């Protein structure tokens, strides 16, 4: 079977800076979820940026359906990959519904304005994310978490088979985190492939698909959550003493910090 996305021996370094990653390979098919974990500053966003074309890998290949991604036009790439960058405050005064519908740009010809169907898709996405009530509000009047949900809605209307989410839950409360993780599961069940980054290993345990784990030396390993995420691997990754606990009520393992952060004398 042809993989939707293949990264083959990918390497990257910023100009005059050390290597961020090297010999990085993995494949992703429709229906797959890859949760990327790793310490701060290790290269998670850089890897995503290479995949979406914001950065050019210094070595290796990136293929989409066996075709080099850099041979796709910008428009075709946008039809294949929807990308939600790490959350920063968005100062645009566009109304939420008008902003979300810009996700339809790859499907519009030059100068064509979005039509009723595009707006309906936008409303659908806002409904899915539970924020339809915000549709007439200017984006720059929303909270960080609300903006994060809006940018995910924009990615959904792009209707690309690969959705890349850089820390999609970073600004969200517990309930909204659950909503996004459920949405990711539903999208995968509908045949989308999803790559997300997270600082919370429990997101990987909850999603229970594939994990991409950056070690502190930049080495990247991909595997099934249950196999790859051992207490030793996670403690090494985060340079912390972490415990894995099986919780019968949840029917799964969770990752926790030790009971006491500082032992009593
Ligand atoms: N534009 C840039 N120029 C030079 N170095 C950069 C640039 N952007 C990032 N870096 C460096 O590349 C490395 C990887 O950064 P990246 O943002 O990919 O890490 P990350 O794993 O996403 O981090 P975090 O979890 O903190 O968001 C870091 O050492 C960072 O300082």
Automatic annotation (TrEMBL):
**Could you tell me the keywords of this UniProt record?**
ATP-binding, Nucleotide-binding, Transport
Segments forming domain ABC transporter: 5-242
Tell me the CDD domains matching this sequence. ABC_Iron-Siderophores_B12_Hemin
A Gene Ontology molecular function term of the record: ATP binding
Report the protein name in the record.
ABC transporter, ATP-binding protein
């Amino acid at each position: 079977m042809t993989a939707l996305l293949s990264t083959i021996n990918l390497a990257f370094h910023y100009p005059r800076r050390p290597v961020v990653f090297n010999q990085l390979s993995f494949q992703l098919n429709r229906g797959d979820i890859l949760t990327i974990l790793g310490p701060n500053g290790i290269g998670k966003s850089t890897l995503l940026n290479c995949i979406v074309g914001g950065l050019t890998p210094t070595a290796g290949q990136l293929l989409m359906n066996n075709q080099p991604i850099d041979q796709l036009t910008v428009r075709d790439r946008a039809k294949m990959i929807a990308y939600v960058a790490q959350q920063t405050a968005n100062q645009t005064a566009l109304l939420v519904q008008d902003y979300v519908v810009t996700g339809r740009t790859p499907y519009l010809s030059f100068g064509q304005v979005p039509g009723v169907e595009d707006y309906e898709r936008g409303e659908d996405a806002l409904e899915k994310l539970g924020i339809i009530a915000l549709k007439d509000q200017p984006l720059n009047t929303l909270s960080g978490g609300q903006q994060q949900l809006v940018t995910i809605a924009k990615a959904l209307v792009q209707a690309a088979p690969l959705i890349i989410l850089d820390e999609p839950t970073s600004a969200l409360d517990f309930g909204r985190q659950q909503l996004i993780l459920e949405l990711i599961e539903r999208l995968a069940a509908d045949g989308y492939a999803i790559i997300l980054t997270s600082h919370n290993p429990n997101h990987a345990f909850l999603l229970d698909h594939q994990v991409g784990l950056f070690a502190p030396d930049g080495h990247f390993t991909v595997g099934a959550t249950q196999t790859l995420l051992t207490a030793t691997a996670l403690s090494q990754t985060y340079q912390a003493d972490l415990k894995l606990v099986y919780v019968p009520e949840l029917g799964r393992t969770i990752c926790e910090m030790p009971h006491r952060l500082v032992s009593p004398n």
